[in-house]
Design goal:
alpha/beta, seven-stranded mixed sheet
Length: 242
């Protein structure tokens, strides 16, 4: 009988094995209602059911195409649902909203579920992602337009009360895209992390805020950190704030 080798934490191979071992789920056998309850989020049962169907579709597609890192109910609620609720609170009834860089459907598809009064459209210039979004929208029985082109192309012919943006690019890049299209945009709502002020400084340095107003419309804790997320509201100086 031979003894099993004992892992040596000083060995690079053993260190790699330790680092790459998946962490056990924080909430085994979790459910969406349980995760929502932990975060004190109360939603109508119909919305909970539709969100659950959506996130299961998202996770199924995620095995084929990288769409999200939030692959359990805790992360989905703490990050995706929470961010979307913060945006939803800043939107007026019946507004037309475009989600820029929709990816796997956050925040736009989630927003359409949480605020069925809104007229939400999705936009992602990556063809594979746009096709997955369209497939999920049809599977869920929702009537949401999906644009598989760059946002600049959409804004040539369409006008929106609000654009919503999360995890797409630095602020200066977003404002460069939107610069020629402010006649088509009432305001932009951007979810950002704790370095948002650095991004604002870079955009100002590039002269991209000269004709714009920017203010912090919401601030809330970022789960698992000591930092906060924010929602920035940006609009053209020629328009009234909404």
């Amino acid at each position: 009988m031979t003894d099993e080798p004992v892992p040596n934490p000083e060995s690079p191979a053993d260190q790699s094995a330790v680092q790459e071992a998946p962490a056990p789920p924080a909430f085994p056998n979790d459910t969406l209602p349980a995760a929502l309850a932990r975060h004190q989020i109360a939603l109508p049962q119909e919305q909970v059911g539709l969100l659950d169907r959506y996130v299961k579709l998202l996770w199924d597609w995620n095995a084929k195409l990288n769409l999200t890192r939030h692959t359990d109910y805790e992360k989905f609620v703490a990050r995706d649902v929470d961010d979307t609720l913060q945006l939803a609170a800043l939107l007026h009834p019946d507004e037309e909203v475009l989600d820029v860089g929709s990816g796997g459907g956050v925040p736009g598809l989630v927003l359409a579920i949480l605020r069925p009064d809104l007229q939400v459209s999705l936009c992602d210039s990556t063809g594979k992602k746009a096709r997955v979004l369209d497939a999920m929208v049809k599977e869920l029985g929702l009537k949401i337009p999906v644009h598989g082109v760059r946002v600049e192309n959409v804004l040539i012919d369409q006008r929106y009360d609000a654009l919503v943006v999360r995890a797409v690019g630095p602020l200066w890049e977003l404002l460069t895209w939107f610069a020629p299209h402010w006649p088509s945009i009432d305001r932009v709502l951007v979810v950002k992390g704790p370095k948002w002020s650095d991004e604002r400084g870079e955009a100002r340095h590039r002269g991209l805020l000269h004709d714009l107003e920017l203010r912090k419309a919401a601030e809330y804790p970022m789960p698992g950190t000591t930092s906060n997320s924010v929602v920035l509201k940006i609009w053209h100086k020629g328009r009234a704030e909404r």
